[in-house]
Amino acid sequence: MSKKVKTMEIIAEESVRLIRESGGELPTARELSKATGFSAATVYFHFGSIGSVIRHLVRVRAAALHKELEDLITAHDPKTHPSVLFDQFVDRMFARAQQYNPTLVRKVYKIALEHSDRLSDMDAAGESLLPLIKAAIASDETGGFKTLSNEEMIFLFRGLLTIIRSPMMEKNPFFGTPAHIRLAKTYVRKMLLNES
Predict the structure, then answer these.
(1) What angle in degrees, to the nearest 10, is found between the helix axes of 29-36 and 3-22?
(2) pLDDT 10s digits, 33-52
(3) C-alpha span between 43 and 87 (Å, rounded)
(4) CA gap 65, 90 in Å, rounded
(5) What is the maximum alpha-carbon separation in the chain?
(6) Cα dihedral sign for 82, 84, 85, 87?
């Protein structure tokens, strides 16, 4: 890991700790400087703004989930119906979401969105899943996938992310329950798979 990447990681993780300890307040550059041992100038050099620190953390965690999903697809046997793959897909997305304190996640996403130049950056995960799904479709030997355009698949995966994420963002106790997970799996099956 390069010195720059390590510095950015330390700053981002300390930001989350400070947000948690303050009850959701965005830390100042001075507070980050004190917590990390780096100067405020270093914080601004690497990120440009405190909101960008949070945006960076969201992107890093999204990239980690993307890698996990890519590994699932790579390991999937093309002779096995894709419903098995998508059940694992949804389970992995919930497992990742449940690793974090929901209250903290809500605050971090709210801050990231408030400090985003382009809200579409936060929804890029739908687009990033497209090549992974196309790889699964290309290798599938079961005929389990519906024929969908790229635009339809992107839209459907944005929908899946919304189904999973919205209850967490709304402080809804439905988040992560067996019924919530079942709803997400049913959505994927109905929208993407040839199932009756």
Answers:
(1) 110
(2) 999 999 999 999 998 887 78
(3) 41
(4) 11
(5) 60
(6) positive
